[in-house]
């Protein structure tokens, strides 16, 4: 029984192909995690890296307490079930199940006890003396499950175990595996390409595409709050309807215009608080996503609804308990091919439409999903990045939503009217900048999203703990806010990550070593990091990681990028040489603004800084990236 | 009007008859030399080829004399030497071939492909190309004539791993997921090879044993060079050739035939014993398929 932790896991093949990129996840004990995605998305590769069948190119994998990157599969205390069962054909079912126990030299009666027990759980007791070839597919997969569970592993890995079974058996085995998970109380990691399997079995699902994690969440949340268009389209049958369109803010309402169609609906602006204002200009294209069941043709619903569009019916699919109506919101569209005007409606009432009929359909506008057309990321994220408000600057004071604050000297902004971007993590419920009314606390994947009212406007903040509902006071972190005008950015937020270029060096150093009372001079290989011209000793642990990830041949001299926060840089006697330009005073904190080469770097400071100084980075806190391949190694 | 057609059964029967007649003819042509050899080995009259087919007198003397009359040719010694060489070579070569093939099939290392190609190409050159060089090398370390047995074993075994090709092809057909399952179950590569792969590789092990036995059993060129004219170090092939020299051919022809029959016995026996393991479908049921 153990949890797993995957940190910046990469799989890069010698030819440079990245099968898995920057996989990060914490898996708690006893979870049922499902990796799902189309073929070639890297889900099996990730599983095989956890099993130890593939080397991990970069990153750190922890099972329980141990870092297992360099551990043999047999020592990782895991068990795996393969898609093709992988039973040993020359052994009986009993021998197959007992193989792992025999290799571990368990006493005979213990082996007998465990095998019998596993066989009983899986209902294969009567086949124990048979060979795999005498059994059916379902029975073979049971044997393979038995072989995994007798070992009582910390983690069970299942690689598409049901893909080779027929539909009926698959449904049956699905519930049996779920039952097994409940009974064994072990961590399960399950790989599948079938979203129904994923939705029905997983406590959490990892959706992957092209080696990148798209979203990690519970089945319900994936369905209700897809983070991007891919997840929205992958999860759920029939597939979500996607339309192209634009959003236009009109007072307290937002108009959604569907492209290539006359259709338009109006929604209250309160639904769009989380969206960037730039999306609401009526020009920027977005994808509008609506699930089949969020569209209704029920006459009663249509009559009561304000969001009605016209649909031209093309054909329907009778599924017995429901009817899927295929149509087009473009009166010239055919409704057969997938296009940005095709619509699938899940009709919950008996319907009788003919092909070519034009009908009214009501949209459940609370269930609309909006995605950016280029990045395909949801523009209504569950945890918004920023609060967008209008503001005015006059005489060194910033006013928004009835609040007036004196600006610290670091923020330099001419008088005028602007858009203010306050990141949700720049608001803390301590201090006296503004009075707010807390409306709700929402726990989203371990993060508390605080909703509050300020000057009649709903705003959001990310906090560590829940805040009691009612009156409260907040403080705003000035270094994180940005002020935008129509022409561009007027005040930029201070960057939170500083980047330096550098490389890893290896040197032979003559050291005096005392051995058996004799002092000898010995050549020792030492590792150094060169960060923007500054050479510092590199701890062996970091050097090890770099060398394994890049390879001994190329590790030294390979261009690396070092990243750290402004608090990890100290002004000291030695370090990266920099020119101090100014000291930015953000009220509560001061930061030195420095020039390193052509880059501007911020470093936390308590005093005024000027002239040439040295910046000492904290080596342990550096994040190191292989520049050419964009692989985060440390 | 109904179309005329010939019954499918009749067509099948006619074709079968034709095929069987052809096959019978071919097998008669094929088996005739061997049959002739057996007849000749049982012939009582001396002399090389006779103008008639069936011998006038029948006798087992030729066989007996092979073992009793050692005055000129020491057949039992040759037979023994060859058997020892063949058995030792078979054991060593089978192990080497299996191990090499497994490594080439399962492990991924740098230069794997070039190495495989190189071995294949090297194997295409006839062995006697380097014969004289090898002979002088062995002579230098004293592994010719009286120690020729060791020398021959060395020569025959030396290039064993070049015979990896067929065996590797077989290992490639055993699903890799079996190795992986076993490794997760707690086996290391060695255990996987012994406990999983070898039991599944019976047919190819048999094949390897047969081929590695047959090669040294009938080898002539190296053996004759190693003995360097000294009859006591001959193997059967070299010895038998000596029997057919001009001076002895008339007297020893029938005995030669008897010896040839005796030589075919170990191979036939080996094959009969091992062929029952040549069963198909040993991998049945392990994975889907």
Descriptive overview:
The complex is a heterodimer of chains A (634) and B (289). Chain A has 634 residues and is an alpha+beta fold. Chain A has four domains: 229 residues, P-loop containing nucleotide triphosphate hydrolases (Rossmann fold, 3-Layer(aba) Sandwich), CATH 3.40.50; 132 residues, no CATH class; 103 residues, no CATH class; 135 residues, Nucleic acid-binding proteins (OB fold (Dihydrolipoamide Acetyltransferase, E2P), Beta Barrel), CATH 2.40.50. Helices cover 17% and strands 43% of the residues of chain A. Chain B has 289 residues and is mostly helical. Chain B folds into two domains: 60 residues; 211 residues, MetI-like (MetI-like fold). Chain B is 68% helix and 0% strand. Chain B is flat and about 70 Å long. Chain B starts with 7 loop residues before the first helix and ends in a 15-residue tail after the last helix. Chains A and B meet through strand 6, helix 2 and helix 4 of A and helix 8 and helix 9 of B.
Task: Identify the notable features of this structure and list them briefly.
heterodimer; A: 634 residues; alpha+beta; Rossmann fold; 6-stranded mixed β-sheet; 6-stranded antiparallel β-sheet; 11 helices; 42 strands; B: 289 residues; mainly alpha; MetI-like fold; flat
Condensed summary:
The complex is a heterodimer of chains A (634) and B (289). Chain A is 17% helix and 43% strand. In chain A, a hairpin with a 2-residue loop joins strand 22 and strand 23.
How are the secondary structure elements laid out?
The complex is a heterodimer of chains A (634) and B (289).
Chain A: E1 4-12, E2 18-27, E3 32-36, H1 43-51, E4 58-63, E5 66-67, E6 78-81, H2 93-103, H3 108-122, H4 137-149, E7 155-159, H5 167-184, E8 187-192, H6 195-201, E9 204-209, E10 212-217, H7 219-224, H8 229-234, E11 241-250, E12 253-258, E13 264-268, E14 281-290, E15 295-296, H9 299-304, E16 308-318, E17 323-328, E18 342-347, E19 358-363, E20 369-372, E21 386-394, E22 397-400, E23 403-406, E24 416-423, E25 427-428, E26 434-444, E27 447-454, E28 457-463, E29 470-476, E30 482-485, E31 488-491, E32 498-515, E33 518-531, E34 534-537, H10 540-550, H11 552-555, E35 560-564, E36 569-572, E37 576-585, E38 590-596, E39 599-605, E40 611-617, E41 623-626, E42 631-632
Parallel strand pairs in A: 3-8, 3-9, 6-7, 7-8
Antiparallel strand pairs in A: 1-2, 1-4, 4-5, 9-10, 11-12, 11-14, 12-13, 14-20, 15-19, 16-17, 16-19, 17-18, 21-22, 21-24, 22-23, 24-30, 25-29, 26-27, 26-29, 27-28, 30-31, 32-33, 32-35, 33-34, 35-41, 36-40, 37-38, 37-40, 38-39, 41-42
Chain B: H1 8-41, H2 61-68, H3 75-106, H4 112-124, H5 131-140, H6 148-158, H7 164-173, H8 176-185, H9 189-200, H10 202-217, H11 221-227, H12 236-243, H13 249-274
Helix pairs in contact in B: 1-13, 2-13, 3-6, 3-7, 3-10, 6-11, 8-9, 10-13
């Amino acid at each position: 029984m153990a949890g797993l932790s995957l940190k910046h896991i990469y799989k890069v093949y010698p030819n440079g192909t990245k099968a898995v990129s920057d996989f990060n996840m914490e898996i708690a004990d006893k979870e049922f995690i499902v990796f799902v995605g189309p073929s070639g998305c890297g889900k099996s590769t990730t599983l095989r890296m956890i099993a130890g069948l593939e080397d991990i190119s970069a990153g750190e994998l922890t099972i329980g307490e141990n870092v297992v990157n360099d551990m043999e599969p047999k020592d990782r205390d895991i068990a795996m079930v393969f898609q093709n069962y992988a039973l040993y054909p020359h052994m009986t079912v009993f021998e197959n199940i007992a193989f792992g126990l025999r290799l571990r030299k368990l006493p005979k009666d213990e082996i007998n006890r465990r095998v019998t027990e596993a066989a009983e759980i899986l209902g294969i007791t009567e086949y124990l003396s048979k060979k795999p070839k005498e059994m059916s597919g379902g029975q073979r997969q049971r044997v393979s499950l038995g072989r995994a569970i007798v070992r009582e592993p910390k983690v069970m890995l299942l690689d598409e175990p049901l893909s080779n079974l027929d539909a009926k058996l698959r449904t049956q085995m699905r519930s049996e595996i779920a039952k097994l998970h409940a009974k064994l109380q072990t961590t399960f990691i399950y790989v599948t390409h079938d979203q129904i399997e994923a939705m029905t079995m997983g406590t959490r699902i990892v959706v992957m595409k092209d080696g990148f994690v798209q979203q990690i969440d519970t089945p319900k949340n994936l369905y209700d709050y897809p983070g991007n268009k891919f997840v929205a389209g992958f999860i759920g049958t029939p597939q979500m309807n996607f339309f192209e369109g634009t959003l236009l803010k009109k007072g307290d309402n937002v108009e959604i215009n569907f492209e290539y169609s006359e259709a338009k609906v109006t929604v209250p602006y309160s639904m769009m608080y989380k969206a960037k204002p730039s999306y609401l200009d009526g020009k920027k294209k977005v994808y509008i996503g609506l699930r089949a069941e969020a569209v209704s043709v029920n006459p009663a619903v249509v009559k009561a609804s304000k969001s009605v569009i016209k649909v031209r019916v093309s054909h329907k699919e009778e599924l017995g308990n429901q009817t899927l109506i295929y149509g087009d919101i473009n009166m010239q569209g055919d409704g057969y091919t997938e296009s940005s005007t095709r619509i699938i409606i899940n009709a919950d009432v008996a319907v009788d439409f003919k092909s070519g009929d034009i009908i009214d359909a009501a949209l459940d506008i609370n269930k609309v999903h909006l995605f950016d057309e280029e990045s395909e990321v949801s523009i209504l994220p569950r945890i918004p990045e920023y609060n967008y408000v209008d503001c005015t600057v006059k005489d060194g004071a910033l006013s928004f939503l009835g609040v007036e604050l004196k600006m610290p000297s670091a923020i330099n902004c001419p008088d005028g009217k602007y858009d203010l971007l306050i990141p949700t993590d720049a608001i803390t419920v301590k201090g006296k900048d503004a009075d707010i009314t807390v409306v709700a606390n929402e726990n989203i994947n371990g993060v508390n999203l605080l909703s509050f009212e300020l000057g009649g406007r709903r705003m959001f903040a990310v906090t560590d703990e829940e805040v009691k509902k009612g009156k409260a006071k907040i403080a705003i972190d000035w270094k994180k806010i940005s002020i935008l005008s129509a022409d561009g950015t007027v005040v930029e937020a201070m960057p939170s990550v500083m980047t330096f270029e550098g490389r890893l060096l290896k040197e032979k150093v003559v050291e005096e070593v005392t051995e058996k009372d004799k002092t000898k001079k010995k050549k020792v290989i030492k590792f150094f990091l060169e960060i923007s011209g500054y050479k510092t000793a590199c701890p062996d642990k970091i050097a090890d990681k770099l060398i394994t990830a890049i390879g001994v041949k190329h590790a030294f001299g390979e261009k690396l990028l070092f990243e750290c926060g402004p608090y990890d840089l100290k002004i000291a006697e030695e370090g990266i040489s920099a020119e101090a330009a100014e000291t930015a005073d953000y009220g509560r904190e001061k930061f030195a603004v420095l020039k390193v080469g052509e880059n501007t770097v911020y470093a936390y400071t308590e005093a005024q800084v000027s002239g040439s100084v040295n910046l000492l980075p904290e080596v342990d806190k550096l994040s190191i990236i292989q520049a050419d391949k964009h692989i985060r190694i440390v | 009007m109904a179309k005329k057609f010939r019954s499918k059964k009749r067509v099948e029967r006619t074709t079968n008859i034709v095929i069987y007649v052809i096959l019978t003819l071919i097998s008669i042509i094929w088996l005739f030399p061997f049959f002739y050899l057996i007849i000749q080995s049982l012939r009582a009259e001396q002399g090389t080829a006779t103008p008639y087919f069936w011998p006038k007198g029948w006798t087992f003397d030729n066989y007996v004399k092979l073992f009793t009359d050692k005055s000129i040719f020491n057949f039992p010694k040759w037979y023994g030497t060859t058997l020892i060489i063949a058995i030792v070579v078979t054991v060593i070569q089978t192990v080497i071939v299996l191990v090499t093939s497994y490594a080439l099939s399962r492990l991924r290392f740098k230069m794997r492909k070039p190495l495989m190609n190189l071995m294949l190409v090297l194997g295409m050159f006839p062995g006697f190309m380097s014969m004289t060089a090898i002979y002088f090398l062995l002579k230098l370390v004293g592994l010719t004539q009286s120690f020729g047995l060791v020398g021959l074993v060395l020569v025959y075994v030396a290039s064993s791993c070049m015979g990896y090709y067929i065996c590797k092809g077989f290992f490639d057909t055993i699903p890799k997921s079996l190795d992986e399952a076993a490794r997760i179950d707690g086996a290391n590569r060695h255990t996987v090879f012994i406990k999983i792969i070898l039991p599944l590789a019976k047919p190819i092990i048999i094949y390897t044993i047969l081929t590695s036995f047959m090669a040294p059993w009938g080898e002539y060129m190296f053996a004759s060079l190693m003995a360097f004219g000294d009859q006591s170090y001959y193997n059967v092939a070299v010895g038998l050739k000596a029997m057919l020299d001009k001076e002895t051919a008339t007297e020893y022809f029938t005995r030669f035939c008897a010896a040839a029959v005796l030589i075919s016995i170990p191979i036939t026996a080996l094959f009969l014993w091992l062929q029952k393991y040549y069963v198909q479908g040993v991998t049945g049921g392990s994975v889907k398929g």
